[in-house]
Structures are given as C-alpha cells and as structure tokens.
Amino acid sequence: QETQRRMRRLQRQDNRSKVNETHTRNLSIAMAELDRMSSELHLPKNVKEQAAFIYRRSLKEDLIRGRSIDAFVASSIYAACRLLKVPRSLKMVSKASTREHSEVAMTYRLLIRELDIKPPVDRPFKFVPSIASKLGVKQPTERLAVEILREADKKKGLAGKDPRGLAAAALYMACQENNDRRVQRVIAEAAGTTEVTLRNRYRGLKEVLNDELPTVDYQAPVATVQ
C-alpha cells in the first residue's frame, strides 16, 4: 500500500513536470510571435505587455489546448489594443498574423468571453473623420455620413455592429448621395475593414433608414462627434 501511494505521488509529480514543460515551451513560441507582431504593428510597450498578460491568462485557464498559439497571440494583441484604445483594427492584426482573419476573429470572441474581458465600446461616429481624411472626401459628404449614423442610432440600428464597418458604409452611402464617387474597396481599406463587411453594413443602414437619408444643414456649425 505504501508503495502504491509512493507511485501515485511520483506519477502526479511527473504529470506536473510535463505540464510545466509544455507551458514553458508554449510561452517561448508565443512570446516570439508576440515580439514579431508587435514590431510589425509598431505597438507601444504597454500594449505588448498587456497582450502578454492576456495570453498568460489564456494559458493558465487552459483555453489554448488543441488550438492555435498564433491565433491566441493575435487575439491577445487585438484585445490589448481595444482595452488601451490603441487604434489597430482586427483586419490589421489578422494581416500581421500567420492565421486567417476568420480564425483570429473567432478566437478573439472566445478569449473575451472566457476571460470576461470587457473592452470599451467604440462608437462609429468617431471613425468617420479619419476615414474621410484618408479618402479626401468633401466636408459635406463627411457631415452627411455622420448624420446617417446619428439617424440610424436613433432607430437602434447600430447595436452590436462593427463600428468601422458602419462608418465605412455611412461614408459610402454619403459619397453616392453627393456624387463624391469612391469605390467600396478603397473605402473599406481606408476604414481597416473588408468589402463584405461594408456591403453588409450598407444594406443594414438602408433597411434601418428605409432608404430615406437625413437632411443636413450645411450652414450650421459642425456638431461634436461623440
């Protein structure tokens, strides 16, 4: 009986040793990928440290077993960017990763759910000026895009949707209305989103607004975008 107890104790110690070795090897691979992606995305030190912390939590909670290390690294980076309000879109992070956009997005959703991470919610309005600036659109077009989003927000049409995709769709709608022509691909790239997302959000906005665009008083002062 004593021999059996000793054998079980040795077995447990051996299992713990194997787990520690696996974790050490996992972290070594993950931190190398984190270094590479941080450099490519030009991330500040605090974002890199936050991403490493999130990844270690994922490892401790055994979320990574049987899943891609690189996908969890990319997801941890995106979560850190969201938490610290550093502007890097999921598309940008996925592009810098070795994994596909769809896998990174799915892993990110798993990560924030299981670790109970609550990143601040971005409003689509705030993305309009920067996207408009990249595109060089006219100010009336930019203002109409903001009003489109305000009107859709009043009708509860923005909840749960990707804010960059909504901003891109509103700008595309405004460009069409004002004959300030821009193709979807260019707008999507400027917004850091995909053409598919832009088209989906565009159809959603048209449905919410019932194909009726808001009127804009272009002589009035520009309202502060929240």
**Spatial gap, N to C terminus:** 71 Å
Using the coordinates shown, work out and report the CATH topology of the largest domain.
Cyclin A, domain 1
Which spans have pLDDT < 50 for at least 5 consecutive residues?
222-226
Q: Specify the biggest β-sheet.
A: none
Indicate the radius of gyration in whole angstroms.
Answer: 23 Å
Number of strands: 0
**Helix fraction by DSSP (H/I, runs of at least 4):** 55-70%
Tally of helical segments: 10
Number of domains: 2
CATH architecture of the largest domain: Orthogonal Bundle
What portion of residues belong to β-strands? under 5%
Residue-averaged pLDDT: 87
CATH class of the largest domain: Mainly Alpha
Determine the CATH superfamily of the largest domain: Cyclin-like
Based on CA inertia axes, which overall geometry fits?
elongated
Summarize the helix and strand pattern as letters: HHHHHHHHHH
Structural class given helices, strands, pairing?
mainly alpha
Keywords: Repeat, Transcription, Transcription regulation
Family: Belongs to the TFIIB family.
Protein name: Transcription initiation factor IIB
Pfam family, one: TFIIB
Task: Output the keywords.
TBP-class protein binding; repeat; 226 residues; transcription; mainly alpha; 0% strand; Cyclin A, domain 1; disordered C terminus; Cyclin-like_sf; Cyclin-like_dom
Structure overview:
- By secondary structure, this protein is mainly α.
- The protein folds into 2 domains: 2-114, Cyclin-like (Cyclin A, domain 1), CATH 1.10.472.10; 124-209, Cyclin-like (Cyclin A, domain 1), CATH 1.10.472.
- The chain contains 10 helices and no strands.
- The protein has helices spanning 2-41, 45-60, 69-83, 90-96, 101-114, 128-135, 139-154, 163-177, 184-191, 195-209.
- One of its GO terms (cellular component) is transcription preinitiation complex.
- Belongs to the TFIIB family.
- InterPro entries: Cyclin-like_dom, Cyclin-like_sf, TFIIB, TFIIB_CS, TFIIB_cyclin.
- It comes from marine sediment metagenome.
